Amino acid sequence: MTLSSVAARARPSAVQVVWFKKDLRVHDHSPLLEAAARGPVLPLYVFEPEQLHHPEFGGHHFQYLQQCLAELDEALGTLGAPLICRHGEAVQVLEALHQDVGPFALWAHEETGNGVSDQRDRRVRAWCRARGVPFTELPQNGVVRRLIHRDGWAATWEERLGAPPGPPPSHLTPVPVRGTPLLRHQDANVAPNTKTIPPGGRRVAEATLASFLTVRGVGYPAEMSSPLTAEASCSRLSAPLAFGTLSLREVVHATRQRLAAVHGDRDADPRWVRSLRAFESRLHWHCHFMQRLESEPRMEFEPLNRAFDDLRPGWDQLRYDRWAAGQTGYPLQDACMRMLAATGWLNFRMRAMTISFASHLLWLPWQRPGQYLAHQWLDNEPGIHWAQVQMQSGTVGINRLRIYNPTRQARAQDPTGAFIRRWVPELRDVPTDFIHAPWVWSGASRLTYPAPIVDAEQAMRAAKAQLMAARDTPRFAAEARRIYELHGSRKKAELRAERVARGLPAKPPRGGTRARHVPDLDRQPGLFDATVAAPLPAIRPARLPGSWQTALTDAFAAPSFHQLKNVLTAERAAHTIFPPAPEVFAALRLTPLEDVKVLILGQDPYHGAGQAHGLSFSVPPGVRVPPSLQNIYRELHQDLPDVSPPRHGDLRRWAAQGVLLLNAVLTVRQGQPNSHAGHGWEAFTDAVIRAVNAKPERVVFVLWGAYARKKARLVTAPHHHIIESAHPSPLSAAQFLGTRPFSRANAALLEAGRSPIDWQLTPDAAVR
Ligand SMILES: Cc1cc2nc3c(=O)[nH]c(=O)nc-3n(C[C@H](O)[C@H](O)[C@H](O)COP(=O)(O)OP(=O)(O)OC[C@H]3O[C@@H](n4cnc5c(N)ncnc54)[C@H](O)[C@@H]3O)c2cc1C
C-alpha cells in the first residue's frame, strides 16, 4: 500500500497509533514522522507473550529491551507523548485500544521477523481490514516486500539507505489513554539476565557508533576475524540495529560522512578508507541476508535448497549437549561457546565456525543448534541469522562449500592461545605448542578437559562427501538456479561483466596473505565501560585556564583523547618521554584562550634531554639555543633591527603576551623525532586551533614549514591573518630568512585594533 493511498483514507486529526517493534527510536522513524503530521499520536509498545516466551528470547534480550524502552519513553515524553505499553496478544491489544480511543490509523515499520511475528503481522493486517483501520507499514532498510528477483535490488538499497536520515518530529500531540508500566522480568515471566551485556538504549548506541568510526574501526578488515581483536575492532552495532535504537540509514550516513572526512585529510591514518569501505559493505549484507527470509520465510524451518531435505536425518543429544556446553575437546570452538554464553556476542568468523562445527563435524540437523545460537545472540536478527545458519551448513548451494577446521582456525586466529586460556581455564597451563591440540600433549591425562568429540579431519571429509553427493543431483541444480534468481547477489556478476568490458581477466588476481599483528588481550580497552563506548568523562589536565577547559571540553572527552592518555601512560612506563608530564600543556597554561593574539605552530617537541618544556621552538634557560631557534633570532633581528637576540632560548615572555607557542604533537620519545605522531595529539591540537579560529577578534597564525602550513585549512574565519613560510630549520633557512613574520604579525594586529607584541626577550632569562 502506498503512503498517499493510506493517507487519503486516514482522516486528518484522527488518532494515529504508532506501533514500535524493532525500531525503538524517535530519529529517522518515518511512521512516527508521518503520523505526527496527521493528528494526535499514541506511541504504542506491545509486550507480546508469544515473543517473550519464544525459545529464541531470553533474559538478556529482556533487560536490553527494558533499557531501550525506558530511553524511548523519555524521548517521546520530551516530544509531548510518552510511550504507552500494553501486555497481550497484538490483535487483542489493538481491539482494546479501539474500544478506549475509538477509530484510529495504525503505523509501523515493515518487519522481517521470525515465523511468530510474521503470523502476528498477518493477523493484525486481517483485523485492520475487518475493522476499517488504515494500517501503513513503511520500510526501514533495504529489504523489499514481495520481491520477485534480485535484479536491481542494490539500486533500491541505495535509494533508501543513501537518503539522509529523517529528523524526529518537532512535537507530538498526546492521546489521553492508560498504559501499563514497563514490565519487569517477574511480571513478564522471563528469566533474569545472566550475561554481561552492553547497556541498551540510543545514547550508548550513538557513543558506540562514534567510537567505532573515529577510533576503534581503523584496523577493521585486518582485525575483524580474530576473536582477540574483533571485540574492540568490530563496530558492535548489531544489537542497536536489531532493536532499532539506531537506524541502518543513520549508520550508513555517518559512515559515508566519516569516509568523506578522512578522504580529504592527509593527516588521517590511511587505513581508514579501506576500513570504512569494508564496513559499509557489511551494511549491505545486513539487508542482503534479511531479504532471504523476507522472500522465503520457510527457511527458518526447512533447507533453502530442497535437495538437502533429507541430508541429516538423525539426532544425537549427547553431541548437541557437548557442543552447546563448550565441551567438544576442540579448544577454540569451546572457548567461543563459553564466551557466547557469557556475553551474547561473537564475531562473524567464530559464529560461522560454531555452526559449521555442529552441522558438519557433528552432522547435526542445523535447526536446533541454530535456535540455540539465536537464543544466545543478544543481536538476534532472524533474517541474518537463518540465512547465515543455512549458508554455513551448506544447505543453500549457490556459494562455495566451506567447512571450518577448528584447529586450523585456532592456530590462525589465536596463535598464542590467549583467547582459549581466557575462556577455557582448564587449559591455562598447557604449553603454547599444544594449546590448539591439547590431546597430543604429554600432560593431557591430567587435564579436566575432554578428549576431542570426533576426529575433525575425518568428520570434515565425510561431511564434504555427503554434501557433494547431494549437490550432484538434477534437483540440486534446479534448486540452485531458482535460489540464485530469487536470492543471489548480483554484485559479482556485475563486477565480472565490468572487468570483461574493460578487457581485464574475469577474475582479479589473488593477493598474498599478510602477517597479522597479535594483540595483548589485557591491553584492550573495555568496550562498553567508560573508556570507549559510553559517554566518556572529560580528562582535565591540572591548572588549565578556565577558557581552555570550556573550549576543549569535547576534545578532552573524545575517545581518541582517552586512548592517547592510555598510550602515553604505557609510553612513559617504558621510555623517556619529553617534555616532562607537568609541562605537556605549558603552552595552554601560559597563554589563556582569551589572551591569544598570535599562534606560532611547530611540529613536535625537541627530542634531546632537557630541551622541551611545552612551548614550540622554546628551550628552558641554560639549554643551548637549538639551530631552528637561532635562525628565528636571526630573522627577528633582521626584521626588527631594534630587537636584539637574547643569549637563551626561553620564549615564555612571548607566551605571556599572547603568543600561543603550540606544537601539533605535544610529546615525543627521547631521540626519536615525531615518534608520537598519529597517536591522537593531532586531533587534540586541531581542536585547539579551531578554538582559536572561533575567537571574534583577530589572531595572527604563523605557519612555518609544510607541516604547519597544512593547518591553514582550519583557519576559516576571514578576520584572522595567516603568515606562511618555509621552516626556520637549517635545511630551509634560506627560504625562511627575509620573510619578516614579526613585523607583519604586528602590522596585522594593529590593523585590527589590537596591541602589538613586544618581541624583545630579556637578555638573560625569561620574564613570566
Ligand atoms: C551463524 C551466524 C549467525 C548470525 N546471526 C546474526 C544475527 O542474529 N544478527 C546479526 O546482526 N548478525 C548475525 N550474524 C552476522 C555477523 O556475524 C554479525 O552481524 C556481527 O558479528 C555482529 O557484530 P558487529 O555489529 O560488531 O559486526 P560488524 O562487523 O561491525 O558489522 C556491522 C554490521 O554489519 C552487518 N553484518 C556484518 N556481518 C554480516 C554478515 N555476515 N551478514 C549479515 N550482516 C552482517 C550487521 O548488521 C553488523 O552489525 C550471524 C553470522 C553467522 C555466521
TrEMBL record:
Domain Photolyase/cryptochrome alpha/beta span(s) in chain numbering: 14-143
Keywords linked to the UniProt accession: Chromophore, Cytoplasm, DNA damage, DNA repair, FAD, Flavoprotein, Glycosidase, Hydrolase
Main location: cytoplasm
Cofactor: FAD
Keyword Membrane: no
Positions annotated as active site in the UniProt record: D604 (proton acceptor)
Protein localization: Cytoplasm
EC number: 3.2.2.27
UniProt keyword annotation of Phosphoprotein present: no
Catalytic activity entry: Hydrolyzes single-stranded DNA or mismatched double-stranded DNA and polynucleotides, releasing free uracil
Enzyme class: hydrolase
Gene Ontology molecular functions: uracil DNA N-glycosylase activity
Pfam families: DNA_photolyase, FAD_binding_7, UDG
Family matches, as NCBIfam families: PRK05254.1-1 (NF003588), PRK05254.1-2 (NF003589), PRK05254.1-4 (NF003591), PRK05254.1-5 (NF003592), ung (TIGR00628)
Function: Excises uracil residues from the DNA which can arise as a result of misincorporation of dUMP residues by DNA polymerase or due to deamination of cytosine.
Family: Belongs to the DNA photolyase family.
Protein name stated in the entry: Uracil-DNA glycosylase
Organism whose genome encodes this protein: Deinococcus sonorensis
Gene of this entry: ung
